[in-house]
Amino acid sequence: xxxxxxxxxxxxxxxxxxxxxxxxxxxxxxxxxxxxxxxxxxxxxxxxxxxxxxxxxxxxxxxxxxxxxxxxxxxxxxxxxxxxxxxxxxxxxxxxxxxxxxxxxxxxxxxxxxxxxxxxxxxxxxxxxxxxxxxxxxxxxxxxxxxxxxxxxxxxxxxxxxxxxxxxxxxxxxxxxxxxxxxxxxxxxxxxxxxxxxxxxxxxxxxxxx
Length: 210
Known about the structure:
α5 (about 90-100) runs parallel beside α10 (about 200-210). The chain has helices spanning about 20-35, 40-45, 55-60, 65-80, 90-100, 110-115, 120-125, 145-155, 165-175, 200-210; strands at about 10, 20, 85, 100-105, 125-130, 160-165, 180-185, 195-200. By secondary structure, it is α/β, with parallel strands linked by helices.
């Protein structure tokens, strides 16, 4: 990557900045069993990671999506003790801020989920733009959230990079004409995601960006 090429950074949140995978996946497994009597493996539930919560119930066949989401949110709160920021992420954000990058997020979380995450709060002072589920009609993997980020920041695809951890993130970035860095904190490999770059820890991410 050419040094100084990018001025703006879009971060996904879950699985990229905040390690909420176990909470999100296991709470979905419990909810699917309780509401639908559906036995999901961890791998099955992981496929829904990063999709707006209001869409997951209908995807699984829930007749009352609102009730499914309500129960899932309850179980998510019960298992929230597993949530934490990924190691080195806060220091990475601070470094990028000092280097002059404009930063923000594109997330499938709704605004309530976004505003009430105590692990995310220390990072928000460094963000210039926050795109949540309510901010666009379409959501990842559609490019609309990334395009809305660009619009609000008056940025261009050429000077902006998207950092995420799923194929949905890559599709959103690719559709908006952005380069994509895969945040592979668990070292799962590229997972058939055609990312431009891959980082396995915060130090590698900084090496790519700076």
